[in-house]
Amino acid sequence: MRLLGSGPSLDQLKRRLKTMGLSRRLERSSLDDVEAAIEIEKARSGKELGYRALLKRVRQKYGLSVARDTVMMISALIDPDGVQKRKSRKLKRRVYHTKVRLYLGHSLINSCIEPASKDSKRHTGVS
Question: What is the mean pLDDT of the chain?
Answer without folding.
Answer: 77
